[in-house]
Specification:
53% strand; 10 strands; 1 helix; mainly beta; 10-stranded antiparallel beta barrel
């Protein structure tokens, strides 16, 4: 009976999704608005790591640069963001459909989730969570740079 229970649990556990399933992120993506220009670039998987960088340009302000990686860890694909003046922050991918990746770190102040999904030919991204008990979300829709 114990063996059957273990098999049932293993069969019902969400499968760890490999980093390779995120190849749809690869490329350079841009969003231009009146307030800012953002370019996010993801490199193909190499040595088990996908590397990314996001550069935000705003008039009369220094560029804001965030470096990111997606690696395979025991908990599953892990998105790690590094921004100036802060320690790297890791978010683990939740199970989900192809063409979407939701990474979560409930212990982080904000955001608690980083979300990427394909929106037709575009790349949609969002960060979300709570700040002082209030829900908060920021969204971006990137177009592939040609």
């Amino acid at each position: 009976m114990k063996a059957l229970t273990l098999i049932t649990l293993l069969a019902s556990a969400p499968a760890v999704q490999p980093v390779e399933e995120l190849s749809w992120l690869v490329g350079s993506w841009t969003q231009k608005t009146a307030e800012r220009d953002v370019v996010e670039t993801w490199e193909p998987l190499a040595s088990g790591v996908m590397k990314g960088v996001s550069v935000t340009k705003r008039p009369n302000r220094p560029d804001f640069v965030e470096t990111t990686t997606i690696t395979t860890e025991a908990a599953g694909p892990t998105f790690t963001a590094t921004i100036p003046g802060q320690a790297p922050t890791a978010f683990v991918r939740l199970p989900g459909p192809p063409g979407e990746a939701v990474f979560e770190n409930k212990a982080h102040d904000f955001p608690q989730r980083v979300i990427y999904r394909r929106c037709d030919e575009d790349l949609c991204a969002a960060i979300e969570g709570t700040v002082k008990g209030e829900p908060r979300r920021s969204e971006w829709r990137y177009r592939r740079m040609r």
